[in-house]
Amino acid sequence: MSVHLIVNGRPHECEPGATVLSVLRQIQIEVPTLCHDDRLQPTGECRSCLVSLAQHARLVPACATPVEDGMVIETDTPELESHRRSLFEMLARHYPSAAVEQFPDKPFHRVLRAYGLTGEARALPDADRGDRSHPYIAVDMSRCIDCYRCVRICNDVQGQRVWHVRERGLETRIVPDGPSLRESSCVACGACVDTCPTGALEDAGASPLTMPSKWTRTTCPYCGVGCEMHVGTRGDRIVSVRPVLDAPVSKGHLCVKGRYAFSFVHAEDRITQPMIRERDRWRRASWSEARAVVAERLQVLIDRHGADSIGVLGSARATNEDNYVIQKFARTVIGTNNVDCCARVCHAPSAAALKRVLGTGLATNSFDDIERARTILVCGANATEDHPIVGARIRQAARRGAHLIVIDPRRIELTADATCHLALKPGTNVALLNAMAHVIVTEGLCATGFLEARVDGVEAFKQFIADWTPAHAAAICGVDVEAIRFAARVYAAHGPAMTVHGLGLTEHVQGTDGVAALINLALLTGNLGQAGAGVNPLRGQNNVQGAAHMGCEPGSLPGSTPLEEGRPLFERQWDRPLPGTRGLNLLEMMDAASIGRLKGLWAIGYDVFLTNPNANETAKALRSLDLVIVQDLFLNETAREFGTIFLPACSSFEKDGTFMNGERRIQRVRAALRPMGESEPDWQIVAEIARAMGAGGFGFSSSEQIWDEVRALCSGARGMTYARLDQAGLQWPCPAEDHPGTAILHTQPFGHGPHATLQRIDYRPTSEQPTPRYPFLLITGRSLYQFNAGTMTGRTLNTDLRPSDVLDISPDDAIDVRVRDGERVRVVSQYGSTVLPVRVTAAMGRGQLFATFQSKELLVNAATGSHRDSVTNTPEYKVTAVRVERVEADPPSDDQDGRHT
Ligand SMILES: Nc1nc2c(c(=O)[nH]1)N[C@H]1C(S)=C(S)[C@@H](COP(=O)(O)OP(=O)(O)OC[C@H]3O[C@@H](n4cnc5c(=O)[nH]c(N)nc54)[C@H](O)[C@@H]3O)O[C@H]1N2
Ligand SMILES: Nc1nc2c(c(=O)[nH]1)N[C@H]1C(S)=C(S)[C@@H](COP(=O)(O)OP(=O)(O)OC[C@H]3O[C@@H](n4cnc5c(=O)[nH]c(N)nc54)[C@H](O)[C@@H]3O)O[C@H]1N2
Ligand SMILES: [Mo]
Fold it and tell me: Nearest bound ligand to CA 189?
């Protein structure tokens, strides 16, 4: 039923539930707004959007007034005009005119101009009310007009609560929650800058000379959330990034990386020409020479040692199209299934467990289910730092009343809003999750209807789980018995309940088992195939989901099609026999290199040396290779230490294509810039080399052509044409051009049939246990400002915000080992050591340490060990037994501690 209105004498119709402001905008009647932002609840406080209603005696704010049938609205009466004029005159009286001149496009400046106002003559910025402490955000509160949008967006969207209103005599002032913005709790998401209508809060680099001349809509190059952004360019440089308001996941929000960490594109040490190493020196080469050398050296290895002597690594940072071409090259030109990507080291266990139990190895639900869930269980995922937009959405959901269960050894940020925090001992997920299943079964909290209709193995599971009493698990995982019971009851009783998990569940010797144990909880409680529920791995890099899905995995072809199942179709379409031997995964490639079986490695957008565990072992493996081709933006550490040939790829700001995010959404990536120097999109580099090797099937001339080949081969992608993706991203599977895409998997049946089977999983402790010699457990993981090995973020001002890896330690342990905040210590494991500055923090539990791995100098992976998940070989990055040694004096500057030792 629609609502009928009369606006300025003309009849209009609209949907019920709209606000007067939104209707005015629809019919293109402008009223000025200052405090309004579509991302925020309207307050009507600034009173600039007042309109008059015939039924009311007074004026009402359009932004905060819902439409009613029969409303008669006037927007430009003399009374309104005079009200607005006096309001803006009052604001202009104390407003610097220089700001209006310099940044004419700011919303408030446009309003002033429309009223012929200029502001007062005054120097900019006002030193008294400025704050230039932050590398990304400049503050000049003399331009503040008290609209409070910064306060509200920080609170309501990001959830950080940095900005506060202070009464100062007659004045109000908006101040951060620290002595300066730099020392506040600000996480530099830029939301306050984005909403500020005046520039009181502004990007630190902004000036009239850095105003973009072109905007390009694209997808963020960092994590697997898949935020969309407008990239502002001027000439051949990125000068600004702004969030896309109608983006399906980010909904007008970004985090510090997407918003600000783009200057790596223009870094001075970006390599934009092919290079060849000769007698340990790199020299520049032309593309034609580099291509010929690659072709020839690959051919020599194939002829001498066979195709399986070569391994290829696709890139989770590159597009679907890039990765499709990469695996096609490995399989049809080299002739090997030795192709993998770094899904191996993060969520391969999620994919394996989901595939095994539910028949499809992908997240079951969508990020929009966060707002639909009554309970959110977060297991081993530090979402506010590692997937900040999802983290912010989870935090807001919890603040609005959703139950939040956090399972993490550390007191991560989300614990502040959690219903309960289960601080388990690292490596004991299976015990804890089994005990939760025990409580659900023994307390009669199962969804019996769902079990009867869709689940197999129920009786056997009930027998198995009887032994997993909370008391039994508590002795293993260190979590209080009552807390285990409480969490299980909350999850089971307050549905729909969704689980969100990260590497704290997967990067263990029981990674796949851990995920399967989590899926058990969803099966027992019927939390699958419905909104607000499901099992959802928070995928790591921008396109790690896509890289694996495109077939950069030894055992699967594009569309995650198992090799043997897809063989007939792919052999026909590619017109080549597919290799018959089982392919090696990344870790097996390293093993094979160490014993001389693997001779060549082509690593695309993946710094294996820095990021693989046990750097000593990795170095040994990489050193044994005859040929190491590195294709990257930078001479990364793998290239620097072991590379033979370097091929310059361009970043996703410089190419077209698609990414697949953690909720299976395929989104467009659009070139905002031409490729830097001679760099090229990865697909183009690989296709040209294929042609140099005389191969057919690589005559692509655009990313769209590649995508159309993917669509022809994979039914799940068939409906996703570029034309459709240009309108909006679509969630896989989308089998036809009139199919809307799939937001929720397993509504009926599961990926492999009508029934899923509960898994009986025994707990197997890791051999990394504290001993007198190595009394601590080291957890490694991430922090907000740096991304993985810091290759990109390390070349931005994010480094000001997070200069170095640190070793987090609990206050009690710091006393025991006699270290103080900031002091450097050596962390020693049986595999190697690294030297790190200490940060004493109550976020850490007793006996546990936490370190990131962003810095190539510190090489934290010198200390991590070689244990792997038994199913997928994913390394056990999350637990290493270590000791902490004090480093007395500052070592000399050529100190090699922590490097390869
Ligand atoms: N800012 C930033 N964002 C990133 C990245 C980055 O480097 N920086 N990297 C991206 C990539 S590649 C990935 S894969 C994702 C990873 O994102 P996350 O999955 O969040 O990764 P981590 O920080 O490695 O680990 C998550 C949590 O697991 C906890 N944990 C450790 N051991 C255990 C355990 O035994 N059980 C449980 N339940 N928890 C445990 C740790 O304390 C940590 O808080 O982030 C992506 N996003
Ligand atoms: N100790 C410890 N180690 C870990 C982990 C941990 O938790 N603890 N986590 C592991 C995990 S989950 C991951 S994913 C890995 C991450 O390891 P990496 O994949 O090595 O890390 P990234 O920083 O994502 O960098 C990938 C490379 O891609 C390049 N690049 C970016 N865009 C493009 C492109 O379009 N084309 C090409 N060719 N190159 C591009 C970058 O310059 C960079 O060198 O680290 C793993 N290592
Ligand atoms: Mo990852």
Answer: 1
d(CA 350, CA 782): 19
| CA–CA distance, 409 with 850 (Å, rounded to integer) | 10
DSSP structural state of residue 157: I
Q: Which of 289, 230, 279 is nearest to 254 (CA)?
A: 230
Give the number of domains in the chain: 5
Maximum pairwise Cα distance, the chain: 91
Q: How far does the centroid of ligand 1 lie from the alpha carbon of residue 265, in Å?
A: 25
In the chain, the percentage of residues whose pLDDT exceeds 90 is 93
Helix (H) or strand (E) holding 100: helix 97-102
Residues 357, 454 share a domain: yes
* Nearest Cα to Cα of residue 82 among 105, 59, 57: 59
Lowest-confidence segment of 78-87, 189-198, 662-671 by average pLDDT: 78-87
d(CA 777, CA 409): 11
Closest CA to 544 of 834, 899, 225: 225
- Token pair belonging to 575: 């017109």
CATH at 35 = 3.10.20.740
Q: Which residues line ligand 1 (CB under 6 A)?
A: 223, 346, 379-382, 385-387, 407-410, 412, 424, 426-427, 429, 502-505, 538, 540-541, 779, 781-782, 784, 786-788, 878
Provide mean pLDDT across the span 164-190: 93
Any idea how long the chain is? Answer: 901
* pLDDT for position 124: 65
Residue 815: other Cβ atoms inside 10 A: 12
Ligand 2 centroid, distance to 139 Cα (angstroms): 34
Residues 159 and 176 in one domain: yes
CATH number at residue 851: 2.40.40.20
Sign of the dihedral defined by the CA atoms of residues 751, 666, 154, 60, in that order: negative
User: For 839, phi and psi rounded to 5 degrees?
Assistant: -125, 120
| Choice from 607, 610, 779 to test ligand 2 binding pocket (greatest atom count within 8 A of CB) | 607
The overall average pLDDT reported for the chain is: 95
Which residue's CA is the closest to the ligand 1 atom numbered 38?
Answer: 380
Whether 557 and 655 share a structural domain:
yes
Residue 292 DSSP SS3 = helix
| Domain co-membership, 574 together with 714 | yes
CB 368 within 8 A of CB 396: no
Count other C-beta atoms under 10 Å from residue 374's C-beta: 17
Residue 782 CA: which ligand is closest?
1
pLDDT at 129: 84
Alpha helices in 675-797 (DSSP H): 682-692, 703-713, 722-727
With a 6 Å cutoff on the Cβ, whether 732 touches ligand 2 is no
Structural domain span for residue 523: 348-537
Q: Considering the entire predicted model, what is its pTM? A: 0.97
**Same domain, yes or no: 254 and 340:** no
Amino acid 170: pLDDT: 78
**Rounded mean pLDDT, 736-754:** 96
Question: Which strand ranges, in their side-by-side order, compose the sheet holding 137-140?
Answer: 130-131, 137-140, 201-203
Establish whether residue 788 lines the binding site of ligand 2, counting it when its CB lies within 6 angstroms of any ligand atom: yes
| DSSP structure string for 296-347 | HHHHHHHHHH-GGGEEEE--TTS-HHHHHHHHHIIIIII----EE-TTTTTT
Reading the block at residue 547, the tokens are 């890289």
Last residue of a domain, one of 237, 265, 293: 265
For the record, the structure tokens of 163 come out as 């900005």
Identify the sign of the CA torsion 627, 630, 631, 635: negative
Task: Identify the residue whose C-alpha is closest to ligand 1 atom 15.
Answer: 540
Q: How confident is the model at residue 205 (pLDDT cuts 50, 70, 90)?
A: confident
Last residue of a domain, one of 482, 503, 537: 537
Instruction: Of 516, 560, 360, 477, give the one whose Cα is nearest residue 871.
Output: 516
For residue 855 the two structure tokens come to 């810095």
